[in-house]
Structures are given as structure tokens and as C-alpha cells.
Automatic annotation (TrEMBL):
One of its GO terms (cellular component) is plasma membrane. This is EmrB/QacA subfamily drug resistance transporter. The keyword Transport applies. Residues 17-453 form the Major facilitator superfamily (MFS) profile domain. It comes from Spelaeicoccus albus. It is a multi-pass membrane protein.
Amino acid sequence: MTVRLRPGTGRANVALIVVSVMLAVLIGPLNSTMIAVALPAITHDFGMRSSAGTWLVTVYLITMAALMPVVGKLGDRFGRRPVMLVGLVAFFVASAGAAIAPSFAVLMASRIAQAAAASVLMPNGIAILRETVSRQRLGTAIGMVGLAAPLAAAAGPPVGSLLLAASGWRALFVLNLAVLIVPLAVGWLLLPRHTRSGSGGKFDVVGSMLVCVLLVAFAGLLDLPASGWAVAGWALLLVVSGAVLLRQERNHPDPAVALGLFVNPPFAVASAGILLSNFAMYGPLLSLPLLLADRPHWPDGATGGVIAAMMVAVAVLAPFGGWLSDHVGQRIPAAIGFVVTAAGLAPLAFAGPQLSAVGVGVALAVAGVGMGLSNSALQTMSVEAVDPSETGMASGVYSTCRYLGSITVSALLAGPLASSVQNAAGFAAPFLTYTAAAAIGAVLIALLPLFSHFRKPVSCD
């Protein structure tokens, strides 16, 4: 699976660029899961209630999801290299601030800064790959980068536990400083310098702010507030911000989010697909620890093992899914991936309480194989569906859809599915939901040929 540079990239070494993007991309998911094991220690040190610690995770995820379309647009406008380097430096500084935070408020501010910086890395990293890797090898490169996110998310809790036991919770943030050295050095030395492709008009500040408000309102509504007034408030904010955003983006010559993206069939299907895929992946991640906590005769440590089986399968198959995309197109691995995912999750819906640890692990590994096949294909489909000058913005919207999948399933598990996952026999409702999400993804991919302009890059001006 050799990856080649586009002609004219000069001295840049594609292997180092891909590794650099991989390390930059893994920072976001690593820091979203690694801190979970340290929350009790953090709240204890600062004398806070344990519930306050969850905001360190919630605010991080919402900030990343809300900012990704905006920072992707910044890369389109001002160039990938400077925006990427600013993101890496900002994450370095924010991590240093978190490591020495003297109060919970400072730590929270550092986490928000971390999330804002991390939101830069995925969309602009993918855009850099599109600019430096030949189209014939783009899927392979995206697949190689694609293994970083699930591995980082899976590695977060065990790595966090080791650091917490060895040096305390501040060591979790110090780790980031070491991880960032390579992407910073490679970015400075090798990333292409002439990558500015956006228009020179006035930047859409109002549209960028409205995108953030819209996504925050969506996340707030999904959180299912206990008060009816709170629900009404979030719903009103969602509707008003959405309406104003539509008007703003239609009238702006260089919108923060081009509305044409959502009527571009390959991009729209790819974005919906990654939302469904992340929904199907994060559902088991979040629900199995609850479903298996009080299960009789369940082996100690087996829960982490069966979840790891799924995440490792996702990571291992991601490069192969990208390679398949290069050789047979994106639809085939995406469709097969969703079907395999549904086939892996369905046994847990119908026979979850009766399956042994090995049976649960095998089912999740099969689902992970499907996710690995489909995710790289979907990412490649999304970037090839748009004009190169809009790759950053499109990658940002796509990445936001990825996070919305995890946010949506989290809300369902805290609300309508909460009673099911508190019961060791309650596999049916949640896993039928995850299986349905994968099946819908397969249907969307199967219907894609019915839409026009498939495989043709479409400008979203």
C-alpha cells in the first residue's frame, strides 16, 4: 500500500506527512476518552462535586463538533499549513495550561482551548492529504490516517489509567506535549506552503458564529433537559439560529458553510453514513459497560476486552477499506461495511444476554470489521465529491457529522434507552437501534446510484 505524492510536491516526504497527520488526528479522540478515568481524581483535588467532572468531557466534544466546519473553512481560505500549525501550537499551549491548572475554572478553559485547537486538525489534515497524495492513492492514505482515531479512542482509558497511577492526572496532559513534537516538526519542515485556495472576499464571521450556535443548540436539545422550559428554549434557539443561518449563507458571497454541500448526493450520503457509523460504534462503547456490570459469572476485565476487539478491528481494517476504495471505488466497501456491521450487531440484539464473553467479542469484532471497511470509503467519498478549494470546509462538516453520531447515541442512552441499559437482560432495544442505524447506512449507499453526478466533483459556490 505505497502512497505517492502528487507531482510538484517537491522535497516533501509523503510517509512523514501521513504519519504527521495521523499523530495530529489522534490527539482529539485520545483526549476525549483518556480523561474519563481521571475525572474522580480531578474533582477530588479541586473540591468539586463528581458531576462537575463530566463537563470536562461534554464541553470538549460539543466545542469540537461546533467548530469543525468553521476551522475547515479557515484552511480553505488562508492555507492548510499555517492553520494546521496554529492548531498544533494551540493544542500544545492548552495542554501545558491544563497540566499546571491551579483551579477547576482554569482547567475547564484549557479543555475548551484544547477542543478548539483539536477541531482544526482533522478537517485540515484530510485536506492536506488530498493536496499532497495522488487521487489513485488517496483512499489508502485516508485509510492509514483512519486507523488513528479508533485506536486513540480505545487506548485513551488504559493509557489514562497508567499515567494516573504513575504520576497523577496532570500527566495525562503532559503526554500531549510529547505526542505533538513530531507533527509540529514535520508540519514546519514538509507541509506544502502554497495551499491557499479560498476566495479573497470578506470572511463570513456571522455565518461561522451561527454554525456554532446551531450545533450547541442541537446538542443541548439532545441532552433532554428535565425542564419543559429548557427544552422549549433549546428548540427555539435551534429553529431561529437555523433559519438565520440559511438566510446568511444564501446571501454571503463566501459562506462559512456552503449550502450546496447538502444537495451534493455523494457528500450528503457520506456525511449521513459517518453519522450512522459513529452512532453504531459509540452505542456499544457506552452501553456495554452498563449492561455487563452486574451480569452473573461475567469474567473480570472482559468488558474492556470485548470493546477492544471491536476497536482494534476498526483500526486494522481502515487501511484495507481505503485500499479497496482506490481500486474498486467507494460504494462497494462502504456498502459491504454497513452490511457486515449490522450482521455483527444483530446477534447482540437477539441473543446478547445468552452470549459468552467470547461470543460477544466475536460479534463486536465482526461489527468492527464492517466499520473499518466503510469509514475510510465514506471519508474518501466525501472529499472527492467537492471542489478541492472547499475540501477543508467539507471535511469539517463531515467531521461534525461524525461527532453528532456519538452525541446523539449518548443522548438516547441517557434518555429513552436508559432503562434498558441498566438491566443486564436489556440488550434488545439498544442493539436493535444500533443495527438499524447500520442497515439504514447500507440502504443509503445502495440508493446512491439513483442520484446524478456520482463520482463528479461538484463545486458548492
